[in-house]
């Protein structure tokens, strides 16, 4: 699990780094980025995880997410994993929404995906352990998680699965119910097989229906998002949270699409919201 | 000079657009981006031009520049042109620092470059006229200009050449004296020929030595910039401004490199500085 530094650069007074390590969960090298704001020697800072969407790597949010100033303002470490294993020996699919770049934060059970596509345990277990070992500035007793689209699905499901670990969970335009949309049906069917019962452990709405609980959730969603009606369906999360007594703040944003223009606009709000809860 | 809209997206309450038009200056289609912050119907907003560096298009700063929130805060239109003509019929060079992506904001006089590489008159004359015609929100009586590296050279030289047009001129890690560095000697030699006297019209330090004047300049420069000693040489600008009585604020930034991590960190400061002068 030795880690190598791909690059570091000074940014907003802190350090934006990109790192690579040999993952046991995926059996591949995995790349991720970490922003560490300026801090006193020996300080321990809370951590915000950001999970990315289809086709993305760590680089999209690192380049376009506009999170660094807010992380400096609030003293938060920002970590962006990749969205799947990658490389020549890793199975892939020609479509953008399955295979490499589309790991969906599941542990695959179906060949040929089950060898490498273990993004659930990579993000839930292995990468946090690496962060704890390699970044003593990161205080893993104070974690929050967010993400975009497929990564919003990842944030919601990982958050719901680990209610004691995360002080707060939010998402930008998440896939809230992969069991009920084409992206999710394709991915969960491919990685987990045809038994839909197995899919429910990776579906935020189904997890809530099945008893998972968090005190609150924050979701921003663009009203002009081209994927809103067919893939994202925030109304399903709204109904599940209402029935379960989860305090969901769902903000529909007029005129916004699915892009990083939308994410970067509201990133500062999400970081401030997490900061309140991380420091409570 | 008809303009087509390539894309628009809501961002920070405003509109980030990308546009294309048939340029007469370059004889090619040219792409640029414009961010228009939210504004009252009929409002006229000041304009900040941003000229990009070697290898860049409009997209680098549009993706990574983190300028939109500050432009909203100050009510400024932000325009990012491309760095050269492009396309199959346009001459190029295998190197990253000459030809396509490296127009150096000159009007070339040497074949084969002189047909298309007319970025001086494109940026100085043609694009402002297009903006005036197509973006009535842009108040071209209030313009400011900035840029990065080769684009910092562009901002300084265009600003010095047009002291009555620009209320303020700044730069990030600019090439201040292309006559005295390898990038500049190659580019100016290639586009303008071997007579170095002709180069001085495109060299900020030489222009100041030859009498060009602005009341003040703002420059940020990373101390860990890999191009600092050989290519950028801010000390030459410092000496020229001292001799000419130009009030140069040169901020050397410890630990910063030449990347957009550096630019985005200080973008807000530059926009605030321009805003003060645009609204004075």
TrEMBL record, chains A, B:
It is an enzyme of class 3 (hydrolase). Signal peptide: none annotated. It comes from the Bacteria. GO terms for biological process: formaldehyde catabolic process. Belongs to the esterase D family. Serine hydrolase involved in the detoxification of formaldehyde. This is S-formylglutathione hydrolase. The lineage of its organism: Bacteria, Pseudomonadati, Pseudomonadota, Alphaproteobacteria, Sphingomonadales. The gene is fghA.
């Amino acid at each position: 699990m030795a880690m190598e530094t791909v690059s570091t650069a000074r940014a907003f007074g802190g350090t934006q780094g990109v790192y690579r390590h040999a993952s046991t969960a995926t059996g591949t090298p995995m790349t991720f980025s970490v922003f560490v704001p300026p801090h006193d020697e020996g300080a321990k800072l809370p951590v915000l995880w950001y999970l990315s969407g289809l086709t993305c790597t760590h680089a999209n949010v690192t380049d376009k997410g506009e999170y660094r100033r807010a992380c400096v303002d609030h003293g938060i470490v920002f970590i962006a994993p990749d969205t799947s294993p990658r490389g020549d020996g890793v199975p892939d699919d020609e479509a953008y929404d399955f295979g490499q770049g589309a790991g969906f934060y599941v542990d695959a059970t179906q060949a040929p995906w089950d060898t490498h596509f273990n993004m659930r345990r990579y993000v839930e277990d292995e990468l946090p352990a690496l962060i704890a070992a390699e970044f003593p500035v990161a205080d893993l007793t104070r974690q929050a998680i967010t993400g975009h689209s497929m990564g919003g699905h990842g944030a919601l499901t990982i958050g719901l699965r680990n209610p004691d670990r995360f002080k707060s969970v939010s998402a930008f335009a998440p896939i809230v119910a992969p069991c009920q949309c084409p992206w999710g049906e394709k991915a969960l069917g491919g990685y987990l097989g045809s038994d839909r019962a197995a899919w429910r452990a990776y579906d935020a709405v189904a997890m809530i229906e099945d008893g998972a609980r968090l005190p609150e959730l924050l979701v921003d969603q663009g009203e002009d998002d081209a994927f809103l009606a067919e893939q994202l369906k925030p109304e399903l999360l709204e109904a599940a949270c209402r029935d379960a007594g989860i305090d969901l703040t769902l903000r529909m944003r007029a005129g916004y699409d699915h892009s990083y223009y939308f994410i970067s606009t509201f990133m500062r709000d999400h970081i401030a919201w997490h900061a309140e809860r991380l420091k409570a």
